[in-house]
Amino acid sequence: MNISRVIASAISYTFHPLLMPLAGTFIIFHSGSLESLMPTEFRKYIYLLIFGGTFVLPLCMLPFYFYRKTIASAHMSSMQERNYPLLSTFIFFSITVYYLFRVPVSYITHVIFFVSGAALCILINYFVNLLWKISSHAMGIGGILGLIIFLRIKNIPAPVEMLMIAVMAAGLIAWARVAL
């Protein structure tokens, strides 16, 4: 295995699409928005809820997919292998949004909208995947870029550094996906 494939794999794992809701929540909590004023205990609860619902639960389905022979590898190389995982991930994201609405804090609207948008993107990814194989990694980093631009447009002082890092990450992800 050559070094460029190793680097591309590391980038793909680091910026896995299932981690993007957690990354977006981190950005919102550190953007100077109303959510950044939330007490630390509530932030921890939101982080845990999002991590569990959008990362842990979808990954827990992998053994089931292997057992049912729905997927041949965790990379899900073919379009057909992605269908059930995309649908179940959409369901887990939707359940996460439901529980976010039930959080007894009224000022987490940006987080709710972002995770709802991520769920919608997964559903769109599913329908597009029926005809073409597209990059879920690119869709995930695109959501992060969209979030940062949205925050900047709303005059929420999301640091410019976050925008620059996200643009560089998008370039790295695009390179890594093509390299792999």
Defining key terms:
single chain, 180 residues, mainly alpha, 8 helices, 73% helix
Helix-strand string: HHHHHHHH
Give the radius of gyration.
17 Å
Helical stretch count? 8
Terminal-residue CA separation: 11 Å
Contiguous uncertain segments of 5+ residues: none
- Describe the sheet with the most strands: none
Helix content: over 70%
Provide the residue-averaged pLDDT: 91
The backbone outline, from C-alpha atoms, is: globular
Number of strands: 0
Sheet-strand content, in percent, reads: under 5%
Backbone structural class? mainly alpha
Molecular structure report:
With 180 residues, the protein is an all-alpha fold. Helix content is 73%, strand content 0%. It has helices at 3-14, 20-29, 40-60, 62-67, 79-101, 109-129, 136-153, 160-179. The chain starts with a helix and ends with a helix.
List the helices and strands and how they pair.
Layout: H1 3-14, H2 20-29, H3 40-60, H4 62-67, H5 79-101, H6 109-129, H7 136-153, H8 160-179
Helix pairs in contact: 1-8, 2-3, 2-6, 2-7, 3-5, 5-6, 6-7, 7-8
Question: How do you describe this structure in short?
Answer:
The protein is an all-alpha fold and 180 residues long. Helix content is 73%, strand content 0%.
